Input
Amino acid sequence: MNDLAHGVTVETEPPLEPVVDKAKILLVDDEPKSLFALQELLSTLGQNLMVAQSGEEALRLALRNDFAVILLDVRMPGIDGFETARLIRARDRSKSTPIIFLTAAADEMTSMFRGYEVGAVDYLMKPVVPEVLKSKVAVFVELFRKTERLRESEDKLRRLAAHLISIREEERAHIAREIHDELGQVLTGLKMEVTWLAKRLKDKPLIEKTDSMCLLIDSTIQTVRKIATGLRPEMLDDMGLVAAVGWQAKEFQKRTGIRCRAKLPAESRFDIDVSTTMFRIFQEILTNVARHSRATRVDIELALGEAEVSLEVVDNGVGIEDQELHAKKSLGLLGMQERALLFGGDVRITGSPGHGTRVSVNIPLRKSK
Amino acid sequence: MRILIADDHPIVRHGLKQMLAADPSATIVGEATNGDEALALARKLEWDMAIFDFTMPGRSGLDLLGDMKKEFPGRPVLILSMHSEDVHGSRVLRGGAAGYITKDSAPQELATAVRKVANGGKYVSASLAEILASECSSDPQKALHEKLSDREYRVMWLLATGKQISEIAKEMGLSPSTVSTYRTRILRKLSLTSNAALVHYAVRHQLVG
Output
């Protein structure tokens, strides 16, 4: 049964297996004989060999495939090897694909330098020594595999982080709502009941008691509000990002004594997930300002474009050092970057000691649901 | 006076009814438990004023208020809310509400609000009035603390929260004597004479919180 089930899965997703299993190697040579020889030689590696007889053909293949390594003949009619390499390297997808040039021994040393200039990682003289070629190619295949695995695990981690962030956000919103709505309303009801009672009392000590009960209920309501807002500001859901940023800036000034000037666009509502992401990043920036900057002033500018929302926060504090930026410990900064990345955005932090810090955040807007 | 009430919490509706019962001129003609129901009742029933919760399931908040103002432009809607005034207050008033009152307000305040709104007036609580006033403070008579430099402002804030000169000096990376100089300048700019007066000033202008 197990085998059968397994077989079915494999059948439904056939392209996945070979891609993961075999690395693609591109062989480029205008002479069919040389191509054939290379194929024979490398077939024992058990990888996926693809061939091209011209620079144009090689380019076309490089556009659609990720190669572990490309073996490229230097002398070809039409686009020669160097030009082909340059064009391959110019493409984003293949900009770091390793290229090994193959050239006749008669070629001069100077052409070797040209090869390295356009991105060759190695240079082999024809006729090639089979063992040398094979082991060189094998190294690149291994490297490719490792890179792939690294990318996969990076991708997995990123998706996991995204999942955790969204779960945490949902949870916070849920708890905030429960606390604020349920607890808050019951307290409101309770207060109304106590007031009803108070009105019917004649005894002074009893009235004093109900008065102090009311005060207690009031301060409990305040606390409930504070907890709920701390978890997730209701503003964000009710009024949108622009209002929430304005409110947070005012709160920040009240809480820290650091002056905040906010330049905000007209209020408008858009994608709540993007709003949440931007808002959380904003909070993190302010936390950093309060904690590390010694600033006395923060300028905030939020802008809504057609396709993106951007935020710039500039403080007049001590400024961040490059090494602090790249220190492994700065999880807060990493967290901001990861949050933005989830929505295809980015966070740039610049600053120099003594000249304050500038944080710029850009997040593309998705089509609003 | 015929009143329509809407709140998704039975306990709040109950309290509201109890309080309105004290006013012989008030009759509750309808009770809704969510925004859509509230709107439906408003279309069906005869009423003079509405008291709505700000946050309800379904259509609520500013959206519901907008609908109500569009369909019944002449009739007052009083918004009752769990949220404090500084969060929603001014927006709700701008959205056309006749009044905004938080649920933790004293019942007398609610009674006052109902009476005022029923007579065609607007109800603005003292704390909301303060917020509204500060929002339109673009007038030439700037608050005194606006004249403080950024650094003076922060020193003022630290003093207002009870920090000692030495603590402030450490926190801001300045020498104590520099901080003292700032303090003198701040007091002069704010026309104050003591730290206590400064604390009072900061609280009154809601600069600390």
Q: What stands out?
A: Chain B has two domains: 2-135, 144-204. DSSP finds ten helices and six strands in chain B. Chain B touches chain A at residues 9, 11-12, 14-16, 18-19, 55, 61-62, 82-84, 86-88, 91, 103-104, 106-107, 150-151, 153-154, 156-158, 160-161, 171-173, 206-209 (CB under 8 Å).
